[in-house]
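thought: fold this chain, then report.
action: predict
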Amino acid sequence: MERASLPPQIEPAELLWRDGIPESVRFGDLYFNRENGLEEARYVFLQHNQLPERFGRVQAGGHFVIAEAGFGTGLNFLATWQAWNEHKPDQASTLHFVSVERFPLTRKDLIHALTLWPELTPFAKELIENYPPLVRGVHRLILDEGRVRLTLYFGDILEAWEALEFRADAWFLDGFAPACNPQMWLDKTITQVRAHSKPGTTLATFTSVGRIKRALADAGFRVEKTRGFGRKRDMLAGLLPDEVGFDPAAGAKTVAVIGAGIAGCLLARNLADRGVEVTLVDSASQPGAAASGNRQGATYVKLGVEFNDQTELGLTSLLFSQRFYTPYRDRYWHPTGLLQLAWSPQEQDRQQRFLRRNAYPAEILYPVAREEASRLTGIQTQTGGIWFPGSGWLEPAKLCKALSEHALITPAFSSNVERLIPLNGKWRLTGSGGPEIIADRVVICAGHLSPELIPLKGEYRLKSIRGQVTHLTDKALQTPKAVICGARYLNPMDDGVAVTGATFDLRDTNPETTRESHEENMKALQDMLPGALDPESSLAELSGQVEGKVAFRCTTHDYQPVAGRLYGADGKELTDIYLLTGLGSKGLSYAPLLAEYVADQLTGQPACLPSRLVRRVESRRIHRSGMALS
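observation:
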């Protein structure tokens, strides 16, 4: 088997450059008009979808959704982004652009292609900086400080439309000509276009082929042939007529987020940036006080040997988190790189099987021998491992504080919520220590305390796991310059302290640090990295001299997170209650993507997760039978 055919890597486009214009070798067609591709994009897609006028009518806090068949060089997207900025909707309004590409351009080819359009340089630069590695699946890119959200699906077009959840306001039916790429223009694909449209949705396409016009008409669109661009005689434009009884998705009004850890703060800020009023509730006096209050946290996931849904969720979350944290670089985010050490014979075998069965771009990960591992981490290792160049460590408490500071976020700290009570179509939060809170929707992000707040009687397959971290000083430790993960993780030194841990105490409820847990952490660290600790001091001596912190992680029976609407045992949705919990020890990597997903749901905007990953995180799987509203 060719290595390039292994998952999750996807085959890139093979280009032939003719007079500076890219042509697809596979399809034998140009990516854009030789005479003026940018003006063609504006004429065909922006003008015939009436986008400049429609952008100007987007309401404050609203959103507009465009779907495209064939991302190509991103030229259509950049022209649209430029128009969105020029027609200045409300700052909290969001442009969603959903696009599919089976053979994506490499970053190098993308840079080459977009140099042809100097006026798009600011937009192209930001796109290139955020352009994802070439792996299959969904990639959500947050651009222009959240005013633009690009959902890129790398894979087959029919698979994409079946997997993604969105309703488009306008369609760009681009891609190569039907004669060159018939797969993109199948009747099944046109049917999916209709399924993802709402009354009043428009479409435009450069082609005027009769078969395409008839298929669109059969799907319910009113389609007209109109003058094409430049030398092209004709093109098609269409409209989906209004329907009686259409019920548009309702967006969020006011939202109460219970829990001001990393998940809750990320969600609150995400919603506020979209124009939603949020009350951020926590029993502590400040954000980031519980598990998110650790001095340092490593951002990593352990990718499975088999590339299944669980592995894809981990990979998608990791890549999204790396992009999300980039603006906080050198403040709270430190992308030092991360080594997953092959620290035992069992882990060495697992890594070897993982590398044989999967192909990942080197910008995500690559194997390193012992010498290279030692050089990259700055500390002598006994084995090699897998190097993640884009990973690193975070200061979660400081980030939580920064995220929570927004004009639309009302803090309600030192508020101990005890019950959620339905009240005239809203939810009332009752408890002690804070003001009465009433909100249209509630999201429970309370970590291991979440089961106590779910307003259903019954049991949940959520569990609390005690974890104690140990703070090591430079006197006790040979500190690395990158994160090392194995039986424990070890972070680089920060302000004279490096964090290692954490213990995994399933049945221990002790909230205080113990000498035994410190010794357990250091014993595991010494076994993983012999020589890292001060050889002149015994573990017993060191364990009595160090400090640390205890936190309680929340996880599920299958160690996968929970995100989205709350469902009862009968499978029915509990109106306007959502969960974001069960992130376990990988919360810093999972939380940004899952907060984005829950915010998508709350605002009725396109989902950043495909249906197969939605099933992976939905709440139906965590409850036991026999539940009722409490």
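thought: worth noting. Residues 61 and 566 are 25 Å apart (CA to CA).
final: tokens above.
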